[in-house]
Amino acid sequence: MEETKKHGYANYKRQELLNKLKPVLGKLVNISTGIEANLSKKSLDKMTSAKALEKSKTNGFTLDEHFELAAKIKPLYESAILITAHGNLKNPDDPNVVSIKRFVSAAILKSGKKADVLITVKESIANGHRIYSIELDEINKASERFRGLSDAAENSGQGN
What distance in Å separates the CA atoms of residue 87 and residue 9, rounded to the nearest whole number? Predict the structure, then answer.
């Protein structure tokens, strides 16, 4: 019963988010890299999937906090910093995926709580760059977690 209520609330929040973000669906441009990424209804579904919500919850954030920052995806992506880019680690044989890029953007919730918003952008041959998912993390944790990866990429000459 409790699980059903939770899914119903998440579905309500997804619909509310879609209504709020309809005017900004389309191409968003990251200022620091110039990368245009598509934000679609599919992106919103992925950003607010049970898996994405669970990751944010594991990192100490509520469902409402996740949706609060998902609603700010446009300014968050525009101001985000690219922290790493790599091939498709989960499915390396997929010839359509060119790269997976991870951006991080600092945010402050209405409550005053600070968060790093980790934004995953998938680049594919068929669809170009598209915003794939978000995850909230404690401030500075996301950038620390990926610092080693981005340093390794730079040291191997694959940083940019």
Answer: 35
Tell me which H or E stretch contains 19. helix 2-21
Does residue 27 fall inside a structural domain? yes
Name 135's bridge partners: 118
pTM of the model: 0.83
pLDDT for 159 beyond 50? no
In this prediction, residue 92 carries a pLDDT of 86
Nearest of 114, 115, 10, 31 to residue 74 by alpha carbon: 31
What's the total number of domains in the chain?
1
**pLDDT above 60 (res 143):** no
**Which of 14-18, 21-25, 117-121, 152-156 is predicted least confidently?**
152-156
Please list, in sequence order, all residues whose beta carbon lies within 8 angstroms of the beta carbon of residue 139, skipping any fewer than 6 positions away.
106, 114, 115, 116
